[in-house]
Amino acid sequence: LPDLGHREPDWKPSPGYAELMAGLLDVEDQTVLALALDALALAEPRAEPDILPVLERIVMAPSSKRDVRAAALKTLLRHLGARPETGPAVAGLFRNACRRFSGGLAEVGIDEAVQSTPGTVRLELFRHALALDLDPDDAEWVGWLFGQLPEDDGWKLILESLPKLDTPGKRSALLGRMGAKELTKSPAGLDFLRSVATDSRLDIYVRLN
User: Fold this and answer.
1) Planar angle of CA 71, 156, 87, nearest 5 degrees
2) Which helix (H) or strand (E) holds 31?
């Protein structure tokens, strides 16, 4: 393996090299996994449908180290950016990882993965996250992800998504960690806040947010 710590800033793996790295994802050695995933996170996505389940296994494995999880998540986001049809699966994996590990975003490696990803891909991840079956406990990571978006684009996306935020889990996840000030600036936002305030299924803190 090359010394990836001393590669050129604009280095990209060749298709053949990326294929070689993908073949190493079944090994248990965490150092080898980290090197392989770091390369794949920089490679151009190809027809690699079988790689997504492998990445999921790595992310969810209790034995995976944080840097390995972060590199796997970066690779998943690379696929989301190039192949939008992977969006629901990628967002679902982010949710499942946050639910599984009690150490929060840092333990999972989501913070590093998302912060190294272009804003357009972050928006797509958030769009698909809002479409998931969310619980109130998802508020922390959904709210944090919203904070990583370009501000105007983030609120625009939320306003577009309001009609679909019709379950207690989704409403709690959205408002449990975000202020509602921006929602008061549009008729649709005000209608949404009124419906939240009268939704007896929600925690009183969310209703009064």
Assistant:
1) 35
2) helix 30-40
Q: Of 75, 175, 195, 82, give the one whose Cα is nearest residue 130.
A: 175
Q: What share of the chain is helix, strand, coil (3-state, %, to 5)?
A: 70, 0, 30
Residue with tokens 């698909």: 128
Give the mean pLDDT of 40-48. Answer: 73
CA gap 54, 155 in Å, rounded: 34
Furthest C-alpha separation in the chain: 60
Structure tokens at 45: 């996505």
Q: What is the model's pLDDT at position 115?
A: 92
Q: Which band of pLDDT confidence, cut at 50, 70 and 90, is reported for residue 7?
A: low
pLDDT band at residue 156, thresholds of 50, 70 and 90?
confident
Interatomic CA distance for residues 171 and 120, integer angstroms: 24
Residue 49 has pLDDT above 80, yes or no: no
In the block, residue with structure tokens 């794949």: 40
Among candidate residues 91, 85, 54, 88, the one with its CA nearest the CA of residue 71: 54
For residue 35 the two structure tokens come to 């090197």
**Which pTM does this prediction carry?**
0.82
Rounded distance between C-alpha atoms, residue 52 and residue 2, angstroms: 24
Q: How far apart are CA 177 and CA 77, in angstroms?
A: 23
CA separation for the pair 126, 157 (Å, rounded): 9
